[in-house]
Specification:
The structure holds two protein chains of two kinds. By secondary structure, chain A is α/β, with parallel strands linked by helices. Chain A folds into two domains: about 160 residues, Rossmann fold (3-Layer(aba) Sandwich); about 130 residues, Rossmann fold. Chain A contains 13 helices and twelve strands. In chain A, the strands form two sheets. Chain A has a seven-stranded mixed beta sheet, sandwiched between helices. A five-stranded mixed beta sheet of chain A has the order 7-9-8-11-12, sandwiched between helices. In chain A, strand 11, helix 11 and strand 12 form a beta-alpha-beta unit. The longest helix of chain A has 14 residues. Chain A is globular. Chain B is an alpha/beta fold. Chain B has one domain: Rossmann fold (3-Layer(aba) Sandwich), CATH 3.40.50. Helix content of chain B is about 45%, strand content about 10%. In chain B, helix 1 packs across helix 3, helix 3 crosses helix 10 and helix 6 packs parallel to helix 7. Classes of the chains: A alpha/beta, B alpha/beta. Chains A and B meet through helix 4 and helix 6 of A and helix 6 and helix 7 of B.
Chain lengths: ~325, ~290
C-alpha cells in the first residue's frame, strides 16, 4: 500500500495469501467462521479450493491446519487472536510446535484496539503464550506493508510462525519495498536520552510521542521490535547501552509480552532501567481512541510516562 | 477376504506384538499396557493384512497411507507394530522411555520412524487426520489421481474430549471418505469404566447422526476387523468409523478389564506370567488347522 491512507494490518492477510498462491506457493488457509473479519475472504474468493472453513471450532481449525501441513501445504489459520491462541493452545503446543509443523498461526483482532467488543475479545496474553513455545517464531508487524512482508516470511520459512494482526487502521510506517527479516528490529528514529521499544500499533504512537518529546528537549530513539522471537539482541543492546534507559510499549500484558522479553534480554546482558507500558488488567469496551487514552497507550500517555520515568532515573 | 492361514498369521503377529509390549514395559518399569494390548489385534490387521498401502522398506514413502495414533499413551503397541515391521530393532525395544530413546513415552515424530506427528494430548488425532485426509484429497484432485487413505486410532475415553466432536462434524461435512477412524471401545479410563465416569451412550448412533458410516466389530476378531477396514476403503461420500469392542489388557489374564493396568508396568514375575500365557496362546494358534 502506498496510498498514504491508514490501513489495518489485517487488511494484508487475504490479499497477501492470494499473491503467494498466484506465485505458486502451496498455501492454504483454515478459518473458523471469521473470514470477513480476518480479511481471509479475499483469499477465499480468489482461491476457493485453498480455503477451508471449519465453523466455530478453533481446536479443529488448528489441527486441521496441522494435518494439511503434513501433505506439503503451507497452512495458515484464522480467527481472532484471543481464540486462535487460547482456545487451542494445546493444539499449538503439543501438535504444531512439538512436531515442528509448517503451520502459521496468524490471527487478527489482537490487543485492546479491538475496541467496543471489550475484554473477552481483546487478546492480551497471546504473544506471551506463543513466545514461550520452542520452534515458534513471533512477529508483530506495525503496518500494512510490514504485515505483508511478515506473512511472506512466514510462508517461505519452514516451521511454526505467529503473526499478530489488528483491526485498527494505522498510519503507514514502511514503504512497499520494506523487506524485514526474522530476528530483526528496526531503528526508526535515532535518539540519545531514552529508547522507546514498541511493536504493532504502538509503533506509530511511539513515533508520535518521540516528536512531542523532542519539543520538550528529550531525544528518544524509537525501535520497531518487529521480531519478538527471536529478539534482535544486537540492536536492542546497542540502543540500551547508548541511551541507558528503555521504555517498552505494547497493547499486551506486560507480564509476558515484548517488554518482558526485552527486560529478560537486558537483565542478562546490559542491566538497564526499564519502564514497561502495556496492560496490567483485562481490557474493556469503548471506542479505540478512548481505550488507548484510558490505558495510557496513546502518544500522550507514552510522553507522560516517559517523562516521569526519565525524571525518576535522571 | 482372508482365508484361515492368513488370519492365523496375523494372530501370530498380534501375539508377537503383545510379547513386545510386555518386554518393553517390564524393562522401562513404566508405560501403558492396557490400552496397548486392547489395540494389538487392530494394529496387526491394519499393518499386516494388506489394508494399508505403504512401503515396508521406506516408511516415508510419499504416496503412503497415513496412520495417526490419537491415543498416544498406547505408544507401546505402535512401537511393537514398527518392531514387527522391522522399522525398530530389538535393541530399540530395550530403551522405551529412556533418555535419548527413539521410543519416547508418547510417540515423537522426530525420534521414531513412521510417526507422523507427536501425540499424547488426547482429542487431537481425529482433527489432524481430517486435515491430512483433506490435504491428500486436494493434492490427488490436482494430480488427477486417487487420494491416499488416512487411518486414526482413537480411544473411547478420549471421545470425552470435545474437540473430537468438532472433528467428527468437519470430516462428515467435507465427505472425507478417505478417512477411517478406529475406535477402541475397551470401556476403561484412568478413573474407572467409561460407562461409569462419563458414558459415551449410544456411540454408534451418535457417529451416524454426525454423518459417519459406522461398522461395529469385535476388536479381537481379525476376520471382522479386516472386513470392516476393507469396507471402509470402498465407502464413498462419508468417513468411516470402525467401532471395535475390545478388552483392555487383552491377552494377559490378570490385566484384562482391570483399571489398575491402564498405566502400570508389570514386575519381572508378572511379566513372566504374561509371557507364559502369550506363549500358550501362540502354541494354540500354531496348532490350529
Amino acid at each position: 500500500m502506498a496510498d498514504g491512507k491508514k490501513h489495518a494490518t489485517r487488511e494484508a492477510y487475504g490479499k497477501t495469501l492470494a499473491e503467494l498462491a498466484d506465485e505458486g506457493i502451496d498455501v492454504v488457509a483454515v478459518d473458523a467462521d471469521l473470514a470477513g473479519a480476518t480479511k481471509l475472504d479475499a483469499f477465499r474468493d480468489a482461491h476457493p479450493d485453498r480455503f477451508v472453513d471449519v465453523g466455530i471450532a478453533e481446536q479443529d481449525m488448528m489441527d486441521v491446519a496441522a494435518g494439511l501441513s503434513l501433505t506439503g501445504k503451507v497452512a495458515f489459520t484464522g480467527s481472532f487472536a484471543v481464540f486462535a491462541t487460547g482456545r487451542c493452545y494445546d493444539q499449538i503446543r503439543n501438535t504444531v510446535c512439538d512436531s515442528n509443523l509448517n503451520v502459521k498461526v496468524c490471527p487478527t483482532h489482537a490487543g485492546i484496539t479491538v475496541g467496543e467488543d471489550g475484554a473477552t475479545h481483546q487478546a492480551l496474553e497471546d504473544v506471551g503464550m506463543m513466545r514461550a513455545l520452542p520452534q515458534m517464531t513471533v512477529l508483530v508487524p506495525a503496518d500494512f506493508n510490514a504485515t505483508r512482508a511478515a506473512l511472506r516470511l512466514a510462508a517461505t520459512t519452514y516451521g511454526p510462525f505467529y503473526v499478530r494482526m489488528g483491526r485498527l487502521p494505522v498510519s503507514q510506517v514502511y514503504d512497499e519495498g520494506f523487506s524485514p527479516e526474522v530476528g530483526h528490529a528496526y531503528v526508526l528514529r535515532e535518539g540519545t536520552d531514552v529508547t522507546i521499544a514498541a511493536c504493532g500499533v504502538e509503533v506509530g504512537e511511539a513515533l508520535a510521542a518521540a516528536d512531542a518529546l523532542a519539543d520538550e528537549g528529550i531525544s528518544a530513539e524509537v525501535i520497531d521490535v518487529f521480531s519478538i522471537k527471536p529478539l534482535d539482541a544486537g540492536t536492542l543492546l546497542v540502543s540500551a547501552r547508548k541511551t541507558g534507559r528503555v521504555v517498552s510499549v505494547e497493547e499486551h500484558s506486560v507480564a509476558t509480552g515484548m517488554g518482558a522479553a526485552i527486560a529478560t534480554l537486558l537483565s542478562e546482558n546490559v542491566p538497564t532501567p526499564m519502564h514497561l507500558m502495556g496492560m496490567r488488567t483485562f481490557g474493556t469496551s469503548a471506542p479505540v481512541a478512548t481505550l488507548l487514552e484510558h490505558f495510557g497507550l496513546d502518544a500522550k500517555g507514552i510522553v507522560r510516562e516517559t517523562r516521569e520515568f526519565l525524571a525518576e532515573w535522571s | 477376504m482372508l482365508d484361515l492361514i492368513d488370519t492365523r498369521a496375523i494372530r501370530l503377529v498380534a501375539n508377537a506384538m503383545r510379547h513386545d509390549i510386555i518386554d518393553m514395559l517390564e524393562r522401562s518399569k513404566s508405560g501403558h499396557p492396557g490400552g496397548s494390548l486392547s489395540a494389538a489385534d487392530a494394529m496387526a490387521t491394519l499393518f499386516f493384512s494388506g489394508v494399508m498401502d505403504f512401503d515396508r522398506d521406506n516408511p516415508d514413502d510419499h504416496s503412503r497411507d497415513r496412520f495417526f495414533l490419537s491415543k498416544g499413551h498406547a505408544a507401546p503397541v505402535l512401537y511393537a507394530t514398527y518392531h514387527q515391521l522391522g522399522w525398530l530393532s530389538d535393541d530399540d525395544l530395550l530403551t522405551l522411555r529412556q533418555l535419548g530413546s527413539r521410543l519416547q513415552g508418547h510417540p515423537d515424530c522426530h525420534a521414531c520412524p513412521g510417526v507422523e506427528v507427536c501425540s499424547g494430548s488426547l482429542g487431537q488425532g481425529l482433527s489432524v487426520a481430517s486435515g491430512c485426509a483433506l490435504g491428500l484429497r486436494v493434492s490427488a484432485t490436482r494430480a488427477g489421481t486417487l487420494p491416499a487413505r488416512v487411518y486414526v486410532l482413537c480411544g473411547d475415553g478420549e471421545m470425552q474430549e470435545g474437540s473430537n466432536w468438532e472433528a467428527l462434524m468437519f470430516a462428515a461435512h467435507k465427505g472425507l471418505d478417505n478417512l477411517t477412524m478406529i475406535l477402541d471401545l475397551n470401556n476403561l479410563q484412568i478413573d474407572g469404566h467409561v460407562t461409569d465416569v462419563c458414558s459415551l451412550g449410544d456411540i454408534d448412533g451418535k457417529l451416524r447422526a454426525f454423518g459417519w458410516n459406522v461398522i461395529r466389530v469385535n476388536g479381537h476378531d481379525i476376520r471382522m476387523l479386516h472386513e470392516a477396514l476393507y469396507r471402509s476403503k470402498s465407502t464413498t461420500g462419508a468417513p468411516t468409523a470402525v467401532v471395535m469392542e475390545t478388552i483392555k489388557g487383552k491377552g494377559v489374564s490378570f490385566m484384562e478389564d482391570q483399571v489398575g493396568w491402564h498405566g502400570k508396568a508389570p514386575s519381572a514375575e508378572q511379566a513372566d506370567r504374561a509371557r507364559a500365557e502369550l506363549d500358550a496362546d501362540r502354541e494354540k494358534i500354531e496348532k490350529e488347522v
